[in-house]
Design goal:
Oligomer: heterotrimer
Number of helices of chain A: 14
Shape of chain C: globular
Radius of gyration of chain C: 25 Å
Structural class of chain A: mainly alpha
Strand content of chain A: under 5%
Largest interface: A-B, 54 and 53 residues
Chains: A mainly alpha (347), B mainly alpha (304), C alpha/beta (517)
CATH class of chain A: Mainly Alpha
Chain lengths: 347, 304, 517
């Protein structure tokens, strides 16, 4: 069996194992697993509007997940997608509210660019610290993520708060309807074309350009990449910038699409789920699309499920956790000595 | 002023406990992002079992047990099974957050939060007036926390076990050449870490409060993690950092109450995160420089 | 075992091993090594890099479990790969790489690594210091106990490693290349110390690779070559330096000590690579360069001989553009390239076969075609669509690999699935591509079997005959004699001798080992 097939198989097994474990927990807790699974199928696919909802939740997962693919492939653990997503959405919102009288396409373009730019900046700061000083990026991207969440909280509770808003959670004002590219369902031809185009571009970049191949080489073995004359720092910065840009874009799509306004702490799990999605997608674009739809479906179902069974939504977080907990396990068919050839034999 | 002091102590105690847990993991070289998850399972199990048995002690014992099991699983996955430490750690956090919220629904048939009658004892009593009132509201765990920190310091800095732990984290080769099995030491560190997280969670749910709420840790596990970095992986340093973050939290709460305050609460809450970025950056610079000075440590990064 | 007993040949050997075998993947690091070391003496173990010395030391010390064979200490069998058991049996090891954690204080480090029985689980600092102050008394005052390991000078660290090793009442001391990082004065001190320990009855096995040092300290000597014990423990008095260096580098082809070969045709006298007064700072792991002058012209192979660790790695890194130049100039094709980046140098025809095939030469987990295409990814290309055709890349890679007779199933298989010889062919198929002007080949045949070695050598010769320049860095003298048109010897970061064919094996060997006669 080739390495690729083996990896697909092991990922499928591990995801199935996670599902099984979660099902076991549900069963122990007295839920009827059969009902739950049929509920998931209904809520993700067959019920009216369910599949649209699946796609609606898959879109941010896909965009952020593609960013994760780029980062991880290049060997950088950019796990700050959540914050980059929030900051992108905030900047798009600021542009759209601040210039709501402007020409619609121009404002939207500026808003989207602002979102992409903000996401890029949010990711480049840890990226620069990483490639220039070797500062651990896991921690810095995580911190930037928390800061992003607080910025969102501040804006929605403060400067951009909808004064006439009711309800417990703070929310911003709504953007004018003219700026929206979808209705409340979050899916429209425009969005699908946009997201599909982005996915295609990312695929082309990673699989069909020299730069993308350099990224893979840097991620696999930076030492060898250096010896081959690849500028490892530049490739690393580009990877950080791109993954931030994609998460920022996801923020703009969320605002102009289903959101229309920002609520404190919206979609709180999306950044982390996107990491899971990218890993389940084996860090390939095609795999990430499949995984995003899969996890979008689960998200959609969990909103739908309470109608069918009384399964609480946190079960989904639990499942995500299970998958993340297990998905990076590597089945090693052959155990190899840790050091090989020259190094180990050198005396 | 007294108010802030009391709030600081109450906010800081769980942070300090979990930060101490983080110090154990970090010293053994494990970048433990599952602290948040272990903290909330600790909080929940204490409430659930405490409520069922009517005994807070049994609740805490059960919480420690659950966390020992989860920590052992985490060790098994990242050690023998070779999963990624960071991703699996984040997964553990999600399992904790999702699992407790789910169990809340499954066991108590409710969403959001439950109240409980069990509560940690308050050792200082009988003060009904003056500044002393505030300390009479502190649970026994708050009082014990400094002792735990001290004990952690003794174990880490003044015991052979602590030396082995540090060697495993810093330079596994030295541990192996001294006949120590790094994998076992990591397991021990994770088990200690899990137990301390259980205590931190318990203080949160039945110490400072009398309830369990979905996602009630609210990122405290990560802040504790930050405190570890900020405290330079030292138990006392991490405890002081935890205390400082508790203080920042107290000011944040205070400024929320006091609307005329100039600085929005969110910016106060950002302080730990911003500081951490600086701390990691400068710490990395310093470490790299000292690494460059090392001659002959070719196997420093050797996996084992 | 208190009194030294040096003249009793019949007694139990302090260390005995029987038919030890260790292999890493396809590399056989030790083959059937059997060795007896008499107690109370200083034994030296010598051999080239890659001969298996460290592996043998690790097996004896319990850090590496052998696949076959047994180790006995004082006649008792030691369970394989058990450090503790070896320590309890009285064997302590001083590693080539220091084993004390840098952030520990001296006292903490000693407490961690000392295999002493009956220690308490908890301690007070003062108690710890009291415990260890005698051991470090001659290294420095009691203040040094609270010094951090990383702040100690290299020699002190080395001595501390020995203190650490002996703290558990070890009767057998294993030192793996302890002199590699020491100054000559510190080496003398170390040897004095070892001699004293010998007089106290400690059995010592010391891994060395400079003959001068062997002669200075050892009573018996054993030689490893390619994982085999080629010269059993022999009394130093019985062996000559010439015999030893022959045993180390292997027999020459034929009986003649000098090898003559026909000089190559030099079509044009174009200087392709030139280093003028080039110096670089020392890095953590390698000596810096000290005023290197060398030139490689078209149609010649320039050999660099030397014991590894004398600056060869720095030389290759500096030429590749991966290590900064402190002083001096580097020219590629007559044009200054000192400030050109790695990619630019590649563009100007520099090709590299790096030292570490598996870490610097290839990406083990990446597919073959990507490894093969790596050079096509960098640099400026004539304007064309930014999109590339993977099929074309793969086809090109397959073609190139077929030309170089790399054996593989599919171009998508990871590079780690190849054998050492095939990995080297893969690297050559990539580096010896159009545009090549000068090739720097570092240890291109190390660890390869006979046919692969032959193939690589033939390729280098063909390259030279085609008018390219080759800088060949090797520790295999036969290879250098066979291929080089000129030979330079590196020692201590500088070029200490230059030879022209025909080569005098002994003179070259002397320059390499710093031997004087």
């Amino acid at each position: 069996m080739t390495g690729g097939l083996q990896r697909v198989a092991s990922t499928v097994v591990l995801v199935a194992l996670s599902l099984l474990l979660t099902a076991l927990i549900l069963w122990v807790s007295g839920y009827r697993v059969g009902d739950v699974f049929s509920g998931i199928i209904q809520g993700a696919v067959t019920a009216p509007g369910a599949f649209t909802s699946t796609i609606r939740w898959a879109i941010p997962l896909l965009l952020i997940g593609l960013g994760v693919v780029i980062g991880f492939r290049t060997g950088f653990f950019n796990i700050g997608g959540q914050g980059q997503f929030y900051i992108g959405a905030c900047c798009a919102l600021a542009v759209s509210l601040g210039w709501r009288e402007g020409p619609v396409p121009l404002v939207m373009l500026c808003g989207t660019l602002a979102a992409v730019g903000a996401g890029t900046v949010w990711s480049l700061l840890p990226g620069y610290l990483r490639v220039r000083f070797g500062t651990d990026e896991v921690l810095t991207t995580l911190m930037m993520s928390f800061i992003g969440a607080l910025v969102l909280q501040y804006l929605t509770a403060g400067p951009m708060r909808n004064p006439s808003g009711t309800g417990q959670t703070a929310a911003s004002e709504r953007i004018p309807d003219a700026f929206r590219i979808t209705d409340g369902s979050g899916v429209s031809a425009t969005v699908l074309v946009l997201v599909g185009g982005v996915a295609l571009l990312v695929w082309l970049l990673l699989e069909r350009t020299r730069f993308g191949l350099s990224m893979t080489l840097v991620g696999r073995n930076p030492t060898m990449a250096r010896w081959q004359g690849i500028n490892v720092s530049r490739v690393g910065l580009a990877a950080f910038a791109l993954s931030g840009a994609l998460a920022g874009l996801a923020g703009a799509v969320e605002l102009y699409g289903p959101g229309a306004r920002l609520v404190t702490g919206f979609s709180p799990e999306v950044g982390f789920t996107a990491v899971v999605v990218a890993l389940v997608g084996l860090l390939t674009v095609g795999g990430t699309v499949v995984a995003a739809v899969l996890f979008g479906g689960l998200q959609s179902a969990i909103i739908f499920l309470p109608i069918v069974t009384d399964l609480p939504p946190p079960a989904l977080v639990l499942l995500h956790g299970m998958v993340a907990f297990l998905v990076t396990i590597r089945f090693r068919a052959v155990r190899r000595p840790k050091t090989l050839g020259g190094k180990a034999a050198a005396s | 002023m007294e108010q802030i002091l009391a709030t600081t102590l109450r906010s800081a105690a769980p942070l300090v406990l979990v930060a101490t847990a983080g110090v154990f993991a970090f010293r053994a070289g494990i970048f433990h992002l599952g602290l948040e998850g272990l903290m909330i399972t600790g909080a929940f199990t204490t409430v659930a079992v405490g409520d069922a048995t009517g005994s807070v002690e049994l609740g805490i014992l059960a919480a420690v047990g659950v966390n020992l099991a989860l920590s052992a699983l985490y060790w098994w996955v990242i050690g023998p099974l070779g999963a990624n430490v960071i991703i699996a750690g984040l997964g553990l956090t999600s399992i904790g957050l999702g699992g407790t919220a789910f169990a809340l629904g499954a066991i108590f048939d409710t969403r959001g939060s439950i109240f409980t009658d069990v509560v940690l004892p308050r050792p200082v009593r009988g003060i009904t007036s003056g500044a002393g009132v505030i300390i009479s509201d502190l649970s026994i765990l708050v009082w014990i926390t400094p002792l735990i920190v001290l004990a952690a310091w003794v174990v880490l800095r003044r015991s052979r076990f602590g030396l082995r732990l540090a060697a495993v984290g810093e330079y596994p080769f030295s541990a192996r050449s001294a006949g120590v099995n790094p994998s076992i030491v990591r397991l021990q560190a994770l088990l200690i870490s899990g137990s301390l997280c259980a205590l931190g969670g318990a203080e949160l749910s039945v110490g400072a409060l009398r309830n369990f709420t979905e996602n009630m840790t609210n990122g405290r596990g990560f802040i504790a993690f930050v405190a570890v970095i900020f405290g330079a992986w030292h138990p006392i340093g991490a405890a002081l950092a935890g205390l400082f973050f508790g203080f920042a939290d107290a000011i944040g709460i205070q400024s929320q109450i006091n609307i005329t305050e100039r600085v929005p609460r969110e910016f106060v809450l950002m302080i730990p995160f911003v500081l951490t970025i600086f701390a990691v950056w400068l710490g990395g610079l310093w470490r790299r420089r000292s690494l460059e000075a090392e001659a002959g440590y070719a196997e420093l990064r050797e996996p084992d | 075992m208190t009194a030294p007993s040096r003249s009793a040949p019949a007694e139990t050997p302090a260390v005995r091993c029987r038919s030890l075998g260790v292999s890493f993947g396809t590399v056989q690091a030790l083959r059937e090594v059997s060795l007896d070391l008499a107690p109370g003496r200083i034994h030296a173990l010598v051999g080239q890099n890659g001969a298996g010395k460290t592996t043998l030391a690790k097996v004896l010390g319990g850090l590496q479990a052998p696949q076959t064979g047994d180790v006995y200490i004082d006649g008792r069998r030691i369970p394989p790969g058990d450090v503790r058991a070896a320590q309890i049996a009285g064997l302590a090891m001083v590693h080539q790489h220091f084993s004390l954690p840098p952030s520990f204080t001296v006292a903490e480090a000693l407490e961690l690594t000392a295999a002493r029985k009956g220690g308490r689980s908890f301690f007070r600092r003062s108690e710890l210091h009291r415990q260890w102050q005698n051991e470090v008394a001659e290294l420095g005052g009691p203040t040094m106990l609270s010094t951090r390991i990383r702040d100690l000078p290299v020699e002190t660290r080395q001595s501390l490693e020995i203190v650490r090793a002996l703290a558990g009442d070890a009767r057998i001391l294993l030192l793996d290349e302890p002199t590699a990082l020491l100054t000559p004065a510190a080496i003398d001190q170390l040897f004095e110390r070892l001699l004293r320990l010998r007089d106290e009855g400690v059995t010592i096995l010391i891994v060395l690779h400079k003959l001068r040092e062997v002669a200075a300290v050892a009573e018996t000597v054993s030689v490893l070559r390619d994982g085999e014990l080629v010269l059993g423990p022999r009394e130093m008095a019985e062996v000559s330096e010439g015999l030893l260096s022959d045993a180390i580098v292997g027999p020459a082809f034929g009986t003649d000590r000098t090898i003559s070969m026909a000089p190559a045709v030099k079509p044009t006298q174009e200087t392709l690579l030139e280093l003028v007064g080039l110096s670089s700072r020392e890095s953590a792991f390698e000596l810096g360069l000290d005023e290197i002058n060398l030139r490689v012209e078209s149609g010649e192979i320039v050999g660099i001989a030397g014991v590894e660790g004398n600056g060869q790695r720095s030389l290759v890194s500096v030429i590749a553009g991966l290590a900064p130049v402190a002083e001096g100039t580097m020219r590629l094709g007559g044009v200054d390239a000192t400030r050109t980046g790695p990619a630019g140098r590649r563009q100007r025809g520099l090709r590299l076969v790096p030292f570490d095939r598996n870490t610097e030469g290839i990406s083990r987990s990446a597919p073959l075609w990507l490894n093969q295409s790596a050079l096509r990814l960098v640099g400026r290309h004539r304007w064309r669509l930014p999109l590339i055709s993977l099929r074309q890349y793969k086809r090109q890679a397959a073609e190139d690999m077929d030309t170089w007779r790399v054996r593989y199933d599919t171009v998508a298989q990871p590079a780690e699935s190849l054998s050492g010889g095939n990995v080297q062919r893969l690297i050559l198929s990539r580096e010896l591509s159009p545009g090549l002007e000068v090739l720097v080949a570092a240890q291109p045949t190390r660890g390869l079997d006979f046919s692969a070695t032959d193939f690589v050598r033939r390729s280098l010769r063909e390259l030279r005959d085609g008018g390219a320049g080759v800088l060949l860095i090797s520790s295999d003298l036969d290879e250098l004699f066979e291929l080089s048109d000129r030979l330079l010897v590196m020692y201590g970061g500088r070029i200490v001798a230059r030879f022209d064919a025909p080569y005098d094996r002994r003179a070259v060997g002397d320059a390499m080992t710093g031997a004087q006669r």
